[in-house]
Design a protein that fits this description.
96% helix; single chain; rod-shaped; mainly alpha
Length: 119
């Protein structure tokens, strides 16, 4: 009788373990199915997002290229303005030197004319 009792206890234990394993495997199957469903939904949501990110990257590259060209143009313009300023300064100096030379040439004549003026 003890052997029958032992075999009955082992049989009940195996049945309980089998039922527990079935429940665990069923829950695992449901979890895997939910993960697969979530993954497919995520994939369908990520495809347009990745396309948008690619488009944004292209727009940023185009904007940076445009900014680069704009800065180059601004640099050329400031260089041209600097050269114009240098040319104007050189012209101002030339006019000043010319006026000084005219004054040097005319000074003796003006002094000569002052001698004949009435006081």
């Amino acid at each position: 009788m003890t052997m029958e009792l032992f075999l009955t206890a082992v049989s009940i234990t195996l049945i309980v373990l089998t039922v527990l394993l079935i429940v665990v495997f069923f829950m695992l199957y449901k979890s895997i199915a939910a993960c697969a469903s979530a993954w497919s939904g995520l994939r369908s949501d990520l495809s347009p997002l990745l396309g948008d990110l690619k488009e944004i990257g292209q727009n940023v590259a185009a904007a940076s290229e445009s900014l680069k060209h704009g800065l180059e143009r601004a640099n050329h313009m400031t260089e041209a303005l600097g050269r114009i300023g240098d040319d104007l300064e050189e012209g101002r100096r030339a006019v000043k030197d010319g006026i000084e030379r005219v004054g040097q040439v005319a000074a003796p004549w003006l002094g000569f004319l002052k001698l004949f003026q009435r006081k």
